[in-house]
Amino acid sequence: MSTGQGPPIDSRRWTGPEPAAPPLDRRGARAAFLAAGGPGAAAPQRAASAASWAGLALLPFVVLAGAEPGASLLGLEPTAARLRGGLEALLSPSLGLKGAGGMVSLLGDPRLLAALLALGGSAVGIASAWRHRAALARGFAAAEAGVPGVAFRTHRYWEAAPFVLLLVAWRPLGGDLLLLNALALWLLARLAAGTLTALAERRAAGLGARSPASSGWDLASLVLSLGALLLLLAYLLGLLA
Question: What is the dihedral of CA 74, 78, 84, 85, to 10 degrees?
Answer without folding.
Answer: 180
